[in-house]
């Protein structure tokens, strides 16, 4: 299984349960990460012993990867682009500023190298419209085409994964969060640690079908442990307080995915991303 994501913490916050579950079932779970999360805001105290935000966040990712049981972590070497409208979007190495083909070429290399049966990436709006998530979604989608194209130059032979999924935000949770946020003194239009997530719009625009629901109850403690690794992104309270913790707590034990390939039949309801694959 190969998951192609934008930042350190994307592997844990949205799909940590799923990754941990498959790793424990003996699946080799690999991660391609577009950036090192350079733009993540951080308490200066947490920078002790680190020379940069990127170094700190890479170490957090390696901690989480160990706990989740990932077999490998590969960085594409781009820079975190921050949220829409910020100056970080225009940094020459910003992931979101790169031509999709260039990023896709790198992702296609890993698809051919690692030969995953299942590929997972962000959904078309990047979960909550983060430009880097959208960039990784587009690059991975194109990379899947490149990986099977015999004319795509690479030392590695063409390879086609059996299944491809996009991780989606659980819709019920989103609707519920929009309703309850004001009761907790939060603005559903300005949600998240950096107040830059508009939950109300996501309910409409992120209305993707759910084709697979993965029950992660059996690994919820592992996911919590991996979450604690990303302490710089948890508002300094190891995830027990703050808006993101609120969201996470109510994510429950189900992680949801939309199937991109093979094209899903109507009302598809899978409980396992490897359903239908020989030997599982
Ligand atoms: Zn992210």
Report on the architecture of this protein:
The structure is a single chain. The protein has helices at residues 10-13, 16-24, 53-68, 100-114, 126-129, 131-148, 171-180, 199-205, 220-229, 242-249; strands spanning 2-5, 30-35, 72-78, 118-122, 163-168, 212-215, 254-261. β2 (30-35), α3 (53-68) and β3 form a beta-alpha-beta unit. The protein is built from ten helices and seven strands. It has 280 residues and is an alpha/beta fold. The chain is globular, with a radius of gyration of 18 Å. 36% of the residues lie in helices and 14% in strands. The protein has a seven-stranded mixed sheet with strand order 3-2-1-4-5-7-6, sandwiched between helices. The model has no long low-confidence stretch (mean pLDDT 89). Bound molecules: zinc ion.
Summarize the biggest pleated sheet. Answer: 7 strands, mixed
Mean pLDDT: 89
Class by SSE composition: alpha/beta
| Hetero groups | zinc ion
Shape type: globular
Helical stretch count?
10
Please provide the ordered H/E string of secondary-structure elements: EHHEHEHEHHEHHEHHE
Could you give the distance between the termini? 13 Å
Task: Work out the helicity level.
Answer: 25-40%
Strand content: 5-15%
* Spatial ordering of strands, largest sheet: 3-2-1-4-5-7-6
- CA radius of gyration is 18 Å
Q: Give a count of the beta strands, DSSP E runs of length 2 or more.
A: 7
State the low-pLDDT regions, or none: none
